[in-house]
Every structure is written in C-alpha cells, then in structure tokens.
Amino acid sequence: MALLVGQCPFSRSEAEMTEAGLVSEVSLPPPLGPSRLLQHSTIRIECRKADGSTSSGTGFHFDFHAPIEIGDIPVVITNRHVVDGAIQITFTLTLADENKQPTDRHMPINVSEPSWVNHPDPNVDLVAIPLAPLLRQLEQAKIFPFWATIHSDNIPSVEQLSTLTPLEDVLMIGYPNGIWDDVNNLPIFRRGVTATACNRNYRGRPEFLVDAAVFPGSSGSPVFIFNEGSYAVPGGLVMGTRLWMIGIVYAVHLHKAQGEIITITIPTQTRSVALSGIPNHLGICIQAARILEFEPVLHKLAGVK
C-alpha cells in the first residue's frame, strides 16, 4: 500500500530547480502516521473576486511524475468552480522546522493573477494549479512550507477498485462552511459511506455518490478509503492499513421546497444556498482516476518530450 509522503518541497540550502521551473521535491521518511499526514494533504483556498467578494474551498496537494531531468510536477487540485473569476488566491501554508517537519506556525500566501490548467475534458469540474512559480518565490524568501502529497500510487487501479463493495466507509477532508482549525492550520475530517458503488459510473458518468455532510466550502475535498489495523475484502479480513483516494467532491443533490430534486455544484459562499433548497447530504464525487488525465497536459507545458 502506498502512503502519503510528507515533505518540505526543497532543502534549506538549495532547491533543485530546472530550466522548466519545476521543483524536484525531497521526500522524507515521515515519522508521522498516515492520519496525521492526511491532515497536511489539503489546503484551504480563499478567492477574491473582482467585485471584492470572497469565497473559500478545498484543494489538495498532488504530484505528477515526470522524467528525472524535469522532476515531479507539484500542483494543487480543486474544482474549477472554486477558482472561476478569482483575481487573487490565498493559500495558508504550514511552516516546516529545521528537520523538515510540520510546526504549528503557518502563514497566508497571496497569489495575484493566479493561473491554472483546466481539465482536458470541459465537462469535468477540476483544475490543477501549478505550484512551481510559488515555490520559487518561497525559496527566494526563505519560507519553508510542509505538506503531504498525494501521488498516482494512492489512486486504486481498476483491479483494486473491483475488490470494493458498494458500501464502503469513506473519509472526506476539507473546510465545510469555511470551518477549520485556524490556530494549527488543519482541516476538518468527516466520515460517511459510499451511497453508490465507487467502481461503477453513476448515471453513466465517471462519478459516484457519498452519504456524508457536504456543505459550502467542501468543494474540492478529497475522498479516501482509509482503514487502519484491518479491513474487509471479499472472502476475508486483511490485517494492515489501506489508504486509497477514490474521488473529489464537487456537487450535491438538493431537495427543493416544491419537492423537485436538483443537482448543484457546491457553493463556495455560505450565503449562496437558498433556504428553499434542502441538502440531502448526498455528495457527488468525480472518480479519482480522472486526475491522471492532467498528466499529458502538464507534461507538455513542462517541455517533457
């Protein structure tokens, strides 16, 4: 089983930069357990719009593999509707100590005129925000952040997905209603279950439902199957830990006062939800494998032949 990697993206002495402007990240042998690393896998995204309004959502760290001369490509993945129209994005970063371990210190980082890469399928509500330009600025300013990175190894293969049942316990991580531990810069964990099988396409789309509390600010929350100690598989019980990322929350079903069921992307502003729309706590998730479709686009931008 592949676990998350906790890391400070570059050493204090020198960052491994390439002509493409990408960072070759330095992995740590993490003393942190998987649940503590999961706390550092997400990032709170606050957006400022041209009209002065603000909104918030959830993003998570993801690294795309690339040839060694380029180095892995670090990005933040979130929903497109989280950042649409943003003229400034604020990330709150946890700072690392001299041993490249997380501290309780953190700082907001403003990114003006932010840029992102849309998913190659315009029907998929995902974007990748490249971090290399930000990392260059942080390194020059001698600011050393810490986060835990999700990799393709954390996304289950088709064969692994086939071992899952229609009813699985899930963990969703994010910032519902903008709520977070702002003193320690940590997200909120919420448990739920799959409401439809995550290895089947819901209504013909590569999506599935979760039965969990999904509120404004949850947009972009990663959804994991996370079992510590043991977990059930068809025909028996396996001892060990399982950590698979299976999806990203992007929308909810709402029950209107008139009785109609509608689907909306999760608002990024609490006040955007009309009182006549009653959430039924069924979140709609994009299957995690769709993240991997960013790879050829990012490789092309990085100059990978």
From TrEMBL:
Please name the Gene3D superfamilies in this protein's record: Trypsin-like serine proteases
Q: Which GO terms describe its molecular function?
A: peptidase activity
Q: Which GO terms describe its biological process?
A: proteolysis
Among Pfam families, the record links this protein to: Trypsin_2 (PF13365)
Q: Which domain of life is it from?
A: Bacteria
Q: Which UniProt keywords apply?
A: Hydrolase, Protease
* Database matches in InterPro entries: Peptidase_S1_PA (IPR009003), Peptidase_S1_PA_chymotrypsin (IPR043504)
The protein's name: Serine protease
Instruction: Identify the species of origin.
Output: Bradyrhizobium sediminis
Its taxonomic placement starts with: Bacteria, Pseudomonadati, Pseudomonadota, Alphaproteobacteria, Hyphomicrobiales
